[in-house]
Specification:
Layout lengths: L2 H4 L11 H4 L4 E4 L14 E4 L1 H7 L4 E3 L6 E3 L17
Antiparallel strand pairs: 1-2, 3-4
The chain binds zinc ion.
The site of zinc ion has 8 residues, from helix 3.
Length: about 90
C-alpha cells in the first residue's frame, strides 16, 4: 500500500493537505529507525515538513500541564481526536 495514497495526501498529524502546503509531504517513521522502527508501511506516516521536523525521532514528550512523560500520537494505533483538536 502506498503511504501517500492511504493518507489521501493529508498530513496524518496536523491534517494539512499536501496541495495546500505548497511543498511535498514526507515519509515519517512513526517509531524512528534510531529506536528500532522499520521502513514498513505500518510504521510510515505521511507528514508535512513542519510536523516531521517537529517530531523528529521522538516517541514521547513531557506534557507541559502535568510534567508527565507521554507517548506521542501513533497514526496506526491511536484515534486522532484523542490527541488533537481543531481550534477555530
Ligand atoms: Zn503536519
Amino acid at each position: 500500500m502506498d503511504v501517500a495514497r492511504r493518507a489521501q495526501r493529508w498530513c496524518e498529524y496536523c491534517l494539512w493537505h499536501e496541495e495546500d502546503a505548497g511543498f511535498p509531504h514526507q515519509m515519517d517513521h512513526v517509531i524512528s529507525r534510531k529506536h528500532g522502527g522499520l521502513s514498513s508501511v505500518e510504521n510510515l506516516a505521511y507528514a508535512c515538513v513542519l510536523c516531521n521536523r517537529h517530531k523528529g525521532t521522538d516517541v514521547s514528550s513531557v506534557d507541559k500541564r502535568t510534567g508527565n512523560v507521554v507517548r506521542l500520537f501513533h497514526p496506526r494505533r491511536d484515534r486522532w481526536a484523542d490527541h488533537f483538536r481543531i481550534d477555530g
